[in-house]
Write a structure and sequence with these properties.
- The chain is mainly β.
- The protein contains one helix and 27 strands.
- The strands form four sheets. Strands 3, 4, 5, 6, 7, 8, 9, 10 and 11 form a nine-stranded antiparallel sheet that branches. Strands 14-13-12-19-18-17-16-15 form an eight-stranded antiparallel sheet, with no helix packed on it.
- The longest helix has 4 residues.
- The two termini are 29 Å apart.
């Protein structure tokens, strides 16, 4: 669902990977939320970039932003973004399992539907827009929409949070073409003191660099968080500012300002007091995925929806459905790390990569990061957001 921008339309597609057309739809949502607000943001990119470097988006094109999404008790939803108006009365369809479909009704046309998942008992929701609008690939934008439930009060950020981020970079034309100048995935941890200041940190990204990170998280009412991070060293030192929301255990933040050379998304998960119990991790989780292909001659983005199953014997299986109903899968072994961390070891067919992630303390919400730049033309970096299905 494409969202308007002030005059032209703030290319804010509202919705999930693999969006679908369908018959006209009258809201008969199995579950109707009681006028619940969620922090809501998006991260987007074009399906194909034809030139290096990746150009900053044109005026009026927004690749990342942050607002709120209200799920009304009458079965409709209402986005809010300062300075932007949205059509009213569009329905959502939410199952008791958490399966979510956002519907955009088009006058005289079939409705467009965008699938996702919402954690009925936890923090996280997501949906994706991978709709084919019959335009050239370099004009087709793909979107990951996601957020966390809005809580009353100001979030407490003190303590240790693991962070996982995906960045789309707009490098100067003078730079030598290189994947690290198009996209980077990074993981590590922030320890915040009582004032929100980062007092300890780790940061490792897909370029292999390990910059130091300093900064501060500033929480506000209703769970809003502004995070300022300054990197020293690494491939792109300097300051980055993220805006978003924090739930009980999970936070989603967005770097919205393309003019400073990049946009991105960061998931943060509060560390648990003890290590995760493997038997409680076991089960199926719905996944929403946003990927960036950083090879300079084949750069682009993709989105997909699917699930991961953590097996009791230590194996895992990921099955995803991407653009044009393209299916792909991964398999391997998994284990728990320290204090909420989950580590995936992919099998030989996937180059024995190691993916890192974290799970919320209530075993409901999940983030997984692929931060490995494979030595192939089809190399990609990606982030998965997960919500428990069973």
């Amino acid at each position: 669902m494409k969202l308007p921008t002030p005059l032209l339309a703030l290319p804010l597609l509202l919705l999930p990977a693999c969006s679908q057309g369908g018959e006209e739809f009258n809201s008969s949502s199995e579950v109707k939320l009681a006028d619940e607000n969620f922090h809501w943001g998006w991260f987007a990119g074009y399906r194909r970039y034809l030139e290096y470097p990746v150009a900053q988006p044109a005026s009026g094109v927004v690749l990342a932003d942050f607002g709120t999404l209200l799920f009304k008790k009458d079965g409709t939803y209402a986005p809010f973004l300062p300075g932007t108006s949205f059509p009213e009365g569009n329905p959502y369809d939410l199952k008791s399992t958490g399966q979510l479909t956002i519907i955009e009704k088009n006058s005289g046309q079939v409705s467009r539907r965008y699938p996702g998942w919402l954690d009925l008992d936890g923090d996280l929701f997501f949906y994706l827009d991978g709709n084919n609008d019959n335009v050239p690939l370099d004009k087709e934008r793909l979107f990951l929409f996601a957020g966390v439930r809005e809580y009353t009060g100001t979030p407490v950020m003190s303590g240790v949070w693991r962070h996982y981020s995906l960045t789309l970079a707009f490098s100067p034309s003078s730079t030598t073409p290189h994947p690290d100048r198009i996209a980077r995935a990074a993981f590590g941890s922030f320890e915040f003191d009582a004032t929100g200041t980062i007092v300890n940190s780790s940061w490792e990204d897909s370029s292999g660099s390990k910059p130091t990170a300093t900064g501060k998280a500033v929480p506000a009412a209703k769970g809003i968080v502004d995070l300022e991070v300054t990197q020293t060293g690494g491939i792109e030192p300097g300051k980055r500012i993220f805006h978003g929301g924090a739930g009980k255990f999970f936070a989603l933040l967005f770097d919205e300002v393309a003019s400073d050379g990049h946009v991105g998304v960061m998931a943060m998960v509060r560390t648990t007091d003890t290590d995760l119990i493997k038997s409680k991790v076991v089960g199926k989780y719905a996944l929403g995925n946003f990927a960036i292909f950083p090879e300079p001659t084949l750069a682009g983005t993709d989105v997909a929806i699917g699930d991961i199953e953590f097996e009791l014997g230590g194996g895992f299986k990921i099955a995803m459905n991407g653009f044009g109903n393209a299916k792909f899968s991964y398999a391997g072994t998994w284990d728990v790390g320290t204090k909420g961390e989950v580590v995936l070891q992919l099998d030989n067919a996937n180059s024995n990569q190691i993916w890192r992630g974290s799970m919320s303390e209530d075993y409901r919400d999940l983030v997984i990061l692929d931060a490995t730049n494979e030595n192939t033309a089809a190399k990609h970096l990606s982030v998965f957001l997960g919500v428990r299905k069973d």
